[in-house]
Specification:
It is built from 7 helices and 21 strands. It has 343 residues and is α/β, with parallel strands linked by helices. The protein folds into 2 domains: 210 residues, 3-Layer(bba) Sandwich (FAD/NAD(P)-binding domain); 122 residues, FAD/NAD(P)-binding domain. A hairpin with a 4-residue loop joins strand 8 and strand 9.
């Protein structure tokens, strides 16, 4: 059984609102762990539009999704939050009057007095390719995410896709794979140019293969993949041996297991009050796009405001015997010490 991680607050979602919540909670000396199904912080900003400019962040006339994520990560560095990427919050249960137990889909267990749901529109779920009977191979030969690289050592891997995830994992897995082939429907990639150049260099030096085409059929039995049939750019079917398929066809948003947390939902959104941004369950909060209240605006800056008010009620639950003091970072030496600005 997995070791239980005890902390003050567990934040579901490492997007901008979840990251800023770390800052507000950290100022109140509350320790945070964050869970995200993605393999990096930033949520929708970093995953769907990392280079797209955002124009309504205070003090930034223009900032990209990735730059905003980088700035938030820099801001929360003094509080040493712990991240648990490529995991989904799967089960939530109350274990006594003032504590919750949260379990992820890979068995990581947390116990905390407060849970903050900052999951945007929900969890990012992989888009599955339209390949017949692909479900028969999922979890044994077909994987939509790489959670432990060592599981792919010595494998004959076929990666499908042309975005950043496909190229990133091509470059990361090539050194440990027995063989690796990248398949994309066209010889034009949406990934970072540097990643594309590195991939082509590996192809040129025959350290991996590149096929322009589309996967049409999986060949194998009992969930064990033996080969795939590909319709190549010459409109010919060719069979390629492999034992592992990694399709990266992008992500879609779904509420996922959060829908089963026992919270009152309103059109797949979580109603909260506007004083504490607490849900219908004591100690569970929702901030950002996933919550609902009269007058709600789905803006990042609204989520920042919600995180600030949420943190004060979380403090009362986590430290019921301590006095909550309101201080300004501009004038409080104790807050400045926490931020390291006086070093």
């Amino acid at each position: 059984m997995s070791k239980t991680i005890e902390t003050d607050v567990v934040i579901i979602g490492a997007g901008p609102c979840g990251l800023f919540a770390v800052f507000e909670l950290g100022l109140l000396d509350l320790k945070c762990h964050l869970i995200d199904i993605l393999d990096r912080p930033g949520g929708q900003c970093a995953e769907l539009y990392p280079e797209k400019p955002i124009y309504d962040i205070p003090a930034y006339p223009e900032i990209s999704g990735q730059d905003l994520t980088d700035k938030l990560m820099e801001q929360i560095k003094p509080f040493n939050p712990e991240f648990h990427f490529q995991q989904m919050a799967e089960k939530l249960e109350r274990i006594d009057d003032d504590k919750w137990r949260l379990t992820t889909d890979i068995g990581t267990i947390f116990e905390a007095k407060c849970i903050v749901i900052a999951a945007g529109g929900g969890s990012f779920m992989p888009k599955k390719p339209p390949i017949p009977e692909i479900e028969d191979y999922e979890g044994t030969s077909v994987f939509y995410a790489v959670r432990e690289m060592k599981k792919f050592e010595g494998k004959n891997i076929l990666i499908v896709g042309g975005g950043d995830s496909a190229l990133d994992w091509t470059l990361n897995l090539q050194p440990i794979a027995n063989s690796l082939r990248l398949v994309h429907r066209r010889d034009n990639f949406r990934a970072a140019p540097d990643s594309v150049n590195k991939m082509r260099e590996l192809v040129d030096t025959k350290k991996m293969n590149l096929t322009i085409g589309q996967v049409k059929k999986l060949i194998g039995s009992n969930g064990r993949l033996e080969a795939v049939e590909i319709l190549n750019s010459k409109k010919q079917i060719e069979a390629i041996e492999c034992d592992t398929l990694l399709p990266f066809f992008g992500l879609t948003m779904k509420l996922g297991p959060i829908a089963d947390f026992g919270l009152n939902l309103d059109n797949n959104l979580i109603p909260v009050d506007t004083e504490k941004f607490e849900t219908s369950s004591k100690g569970i909060f929702a901030i950002g796009d996933i919550n609902y209240y009269p007058g709600k605006l789905k803006l990042i800056l609204s989520g920042f405001h919600e995180a600030a008010l949420m943190s004060r009620q979380a403090f009362r639950y986590c430290k019921p015997d301590a006095k909550l003091r309101f201080e300004y970072t501009t004038s409080s030496s104790s807050l400045q010490d926490k931020l390291g600005v006086n070093d």
